[in-house]
Write a structure and sequence with these properties.
The protein is α+β, with helices and mostly antiparallel strands. The protein has 2 helices and 2 strands; from the N terminus they run αββα. Strand 1 and strand 2 form a beta hairpin.
Length: about 50
């Protein structure tokens, strides 16, 4: 599934400007950790984790 998302972004030069970020977040409901995935621009990748 991830390969398909990455493959669709790599058409032309637009795919090299994006990064798939995976962040572990604690759920306020259950207290369990869940993974949050998002595709962001390279310049905004560090801000995504803050």
């Amino acid at each position: 599934m991830a390969k398909k998302a990455v493959a669709t972004l790599q058409t032309g030069n637009a795919g090299r400007n994006h990064t798939k970020c995976i962040k572990m977040v604690k759920s306020p409901k259950t207290g369990a950790y869940v993974f949050q995935e998002e595709i962001v621009e390279n310049e905004k990748a560090m801000a995504y984790f803050k």
